[in-house]
């Protein structure tokens, strides 16, 4: 029979069931006689009996469940109204309430949410937090000591591993996470904390798409955050493979009794820590000595969770890995790269995303697709497909590349070097190099555009270094014609700057333009400086054997300012006025060159401005195309380049002649050779190619290296026989231009019309003869003004910094 209390619960919660049963009761409340039931036949009797039996069973089950919930509510009400117990007694009460559940209950299939366990665990956390709040910083209270000395975390780990009752693993993970997050005092150094934490870490990521995945990643991330705060604690999580401490535990009465009812020794946290000095003092030495045989389970679990189909879980796992790689402990860094699959994860996923890209893509799409930071990749497949085919795959690749780059950037130095080398070997060499070396023009164009985008995106020092070694090689000795083909990829890329396909040439020139702006000294050394180091581009004659100077030049030299080929340019916008440069120029000296090797700036500037003859100039007819615009740009760019080169060990002045090996033959280097060859054909090349060639040359001229400045921007150096400089190449182009101008009628009006069309000031009309030549002349004029501005800015920057 039910008590009145039970009847209250049943009636209030199961009214529908009672309504169904009401026809079985007469007006007096008694059951019908069996004879009355027989009237409907035996079948009806059986159905009613079966229905009554199942209803009673449901009522009993529902009563038990409801009674459990009512008890929990009643418990909270009593706790709120009753006088508060001391915190320790309250804490022990809640813990023993949990352990009594395992001792008394026989139903281990009921989910944990139907029990009072979650409520008791929450109360224990609240008590620990309150206790810490009421005590001085760093002082351990009796509740925390009880948790530590009775190995409560060990017991909870065992229950969570067995998932008894169902859902207990989720509750245990939440308890650990909140405990580590809310308690300010350091818990992980204690053996009864870091040991069960390490065991629980091994349970995370075992099964993909597990119902506890969210709790697992939250737990792992809070552990990573704690290690970031105190990096030395990571030694506790480097587990020796030969000493795996975990053994199978029995979940049941014996385990609970062993952990809960052990006598309280009253030993404090500080005393127990002192009793186990080997745990703290020997951790670092043992981990470094055996790092080659250590397990880094925290990393392994995070790596497993990066394979989750839930993108939010993947992002959190990647964040946890980024925290771990940044830890400064050498033993952890070594274990990370040698005993985990982190490098494999980075490279394999990078290769997978790259191979998912279409074989042919428009370089403009690759170059202009929006930059996506890893973890912020929000997309719409229909919208992406509507923009261009492969956009989704490209964004996924660039997003993962960004993660690899940021991970290596944040990583401990030795770990960063290992990961960057893995990316070089398993992605750049194995996957990208065959793509760049292929003969298909479409494939070359796509792979070069992708490489250009990769160069633009990489910012980590270690990955940038490995990428440069992949592209240019590691050689540092001076380049010779015989050594040009020593590195096949480097040779092929430079040759592509002068490819039959203008598209490939432009894209490869853009790649090198992007490359020379990266903050790495080896780039310029490999492409340029190693060929200029000995200054053997200068004439190698003793001073007494040289012919006497006239006005600072050999008697047979041509003074470009007086040469009728270049003429005097009187246009106000194409030449500096006297007040612009004379006021800041050094005083005139008897020799054309100063004693420190720097030619007077006004002569250099006018040498470039006067290179193009009057009849080939058109800028002074169009407003806003004057020399002053280049001055502003050159000043800003030179300041930026000086900031990039500030950390490099570049000499401040040219290498003294007596220390130079001037007898060795000069070779300008493969890269400059191709650029000079291209510059020499500026009157016969498409406009877009000319713009890109001059863009690369002007950026090279901006670098503040004395040899590069001398070779690129000083028109008055005495070149060795057979050598050429940028100025001498332009002189030859102008000489060819003067001969060709004579054969073109109405050259100047046509030139002006073409300039206006390029600026959008005139609509496109009838075709003009010699369009390529006219466009080349306009680019040449603008390039000379740009070089003059660069020379002016660099000279004054050097004058301002000199004592």
From TrEMBL:
Stretches with biased composition (Basic and acidic residues)? 540-549
Pfam families the UniProt entry points to: DUF5917, KELAA, RAI16-like
The source's domain of life comes to Eukaryota
Q: Report the residue ranges that make up the FHF complex subunit HOOK-interacting protein C-terminal domain in this protein.
A: 668-760
> Where in the sequence does UniProt note compositional bias of the Low complexity kind?
283-293, 574-586
Q: Where is this region: Disordered?
A: 266-293, 540-597
Family assignment from sequence similarity: Belongs to the FHIP family.
Descriptive protein name: FHF complex subunit HOOK-interacting protein C-terminal domain-containing protein
Q: Which organism is it from?
A: Gasterosteus aculeatus aculeatus
